[in-house]
Specification:
The protein is an alpha/beta fold. It has ten helices and seven strands. A hairpin with a 6-residue loop joins strand 6 and strand 7 (about 250). Helix 8 crosses helix 9 (about 175-190). The protein starts with a helix and ends with a strand.
Length: about 250
């Protein structure tokens, strides 16, 4: 079997990573006869596996609907600001997902709440965990649209089944009763089963004031969050800088 036949067979088997690796070393002039059959096979397997993992990561990131990509190394750690390197290293192990617990990230505007949650979302995807990111405003809009279009239960199934759900900018404004009921449904289905991250400018105890549309449902909703979540309070000055003379905003 010559090299062209080998490449065609790998493509037929859909071993695209292995095919790309073999094509690259052939083009580099590597003499395959000088490689042991076992080494050649090991390299092909590793290339195929790496390609499969990259494809899976790409699909998970696409389905996560992240507004931007943030990797864990992009997060600034500082113990005085509430996130030490040790704490961040621990969170990036994603044990909270394995333990089916959540995180409540609070702090003033600009301290890095969304930034931190996006990094955890990326890390979860890299560990092959299904993830979904929602800004609270968009979540309310999707819930309302789903009710009008008759796809509410389909949306709820999509939201509740992912390993990690992130609801960003929660509790900025009072929550209307239909949205509150939907949030209760979400947390009722996810509590103790899957992990949820909330980010908010307000501390958890202040959330009660925004759930007056239905205090009974609101209390039940918060109880399901509080019972399975740890708190992460970020501190310090805003990390956003704005240049009036430029259209560029730096985070």
């Amino acid at each position: 079997m010559n090299n062209i036949e080998r490449l065609k067979l790998l493509d037929k088997l859909r071993w695209k990573g292995a095919s790309a690796w073999l094509k690259a070393i052939i083009e580099n002039g590597t003499d395959l006869n000088k490689m042991s059959p076992l080494d050649l096979f090991d390299n092909l397997l590793e290339a195929a596996d790496t390609h499969k993992e990259q494809r899976a990561l790409t699909l998970l990131l696409k389905n996560a609907r992240l507004p931007r990509r943030v990797i864990p190394a992009d997060v600034q750690c500082s113990a005085p600001n509430g996130l030490s390197k040790e704490k961040w290293s621990y969170l990036c192990e994603c044990n909270f997902i394995e333990n089916r617990t959540g995180i409540i990230i609070t702090g003033k505007t600009g301290v890095g709440k969304t930034h931190t949650s996006l990094a955890l979302a990326y890390q979860a995807c890299s560990m092959q965990k299904s993830t979904l990111f929602y800004n609270m405003t968009r979540l309310q809009s999707d819930i309302n649209d789903a009710r009008l279009q008759g796809t509410y239960y389909k949306l709820m199934k999509q939201i509740t089944k992912v390993s990690l759900l992130i609801i960003d900018d929660f509790a900025l404004t009072p929550i209307l009763e239909p949205t509150l009921i939907a949030l209760y449904d979400i947390m009722e289905a996810r509590s103790g089963i899957n992990s949820t991250i909330f980010t908010s400018q307000l501390p958890f105890n202040s959330w009660y004031d925004l759930l007056s549309a239905n205090l009974n449902v609101g209390e039940a909703f918060l109880d399901r969050i509080k019972g399975c979540s740890e708190n992460l309070e970020l501190k310090g000055k805003s990390r956003r800088t704005f240049k009036i003379s430029s259209t560029t905003t730096q985070y």
